[in-house]
Design a protein that fits this description.
alpha/beta; about 240 residues; 9 helices; four-stranded antiparallel beta sheet
Length: about 240
């Protein structure tokens, strides 16, 4: 069963083609990595799948809904974490989670239970009344991820979620991703870190708006005759 089905999806801005005729599927509960250099079209493709941009042509089904005609339903079924930290610095940890939980229209009692569970899992319960401004970047990223999961989405889109944090925090963050995937949540993640790409069950590499390679890390390394994802990406770029 697929959570995302993309067929010949294209997005043009005037004469510029940002995403060019891409086709792929993502399985339910899969950790799917979306790779490519800056300007490859990753973020534009992700914004279309989130219902934030309408495609110029092609079609996509996200969480069972048609991208062109049911984008409002898609938004209810997904979580999204942007490249830039998107929570409010001048609110506390608890206030941020309450705000977003209310936006998701989660019943008050259920929301309290979900927030308590999330903060306990993140080991942030004792600091829930701190302003977000005053906590480290790594904690902010974990908080943003937990907030994106509050409404139990079917799919979570993560746009370079660990950018700017240290390797230890990145590993901790990926442990949260694995836990979410184990619950059946589909994870669609873009990253610049090649070690993170190897954590994904399958990866898709884009260049100039098009899908160039897609498969498991092992399949792609064998296909390109390399031993690591780093070598794979370097060889791909040179080619």
């Amino acid at each position: 069963m697929y959570s995302i089905e993309v067929e010949h999806l294209t997005k043009k801005f005037g004469h510029f083609t940002a995403v060019n005729d891409i086709t792929f599927q993502v399985k339910k509960g899969e950790i799917f990595g979306f790779l490519g250099a800056n300007g490859a079209g990753k973020t534009t493709a992700m914004k279309m799948m989130c219902g934030l941009l309408l495609p110029t042509s092609g079609k996509a089904m996200v969480a069972g809904y048609d991208l062109k005609t049911e984008s409002k339903n898609i938004k209810k079924c997904i979580g999204y974490m942007s490249q830039r930290f998107s929570l409010y610095d001048d609110l506390t940890i608890l206030e941020n989670m309450n705000l977003f939980g209310t936006i998701y229209d989660i019943p008050k009692k259920e929301l309290k239970e979900r927030i308590d569970h999330s903060l306990t899992e993140l080991r942030m319960k004792e600091i829930q009344d701190l302003l977000v401004h005053d906590i480290p970047l790594g904690w902010k990223q974990r908080l943003a991820f937990a907030t994106a999961l509050l409404h139990n989405p079917q799919i979570v889109f993560l746009d370079e979620p660990t950018s700017g944090v240290d390797p230890i925090v990145r590993r901790e963050f990926w442990s949260l991703i694995y836990k979410a995937a184990a619950r059946g949540i589909t994870i669609f993640v873009t990253t610049h870190y090649m070690d993170e790409a190897s954590y994904c069950e399958r990866i898709c590499i884009m260049a100039e708006g098009s899908v160039q390679l897609i498969g498991t890390p092992t399949e792609l390394k064998q296909q390109m005759g390399v031993n690591t994802i780093d070598e794979l990406f370097v060889k791909f770029v040179k080619r």
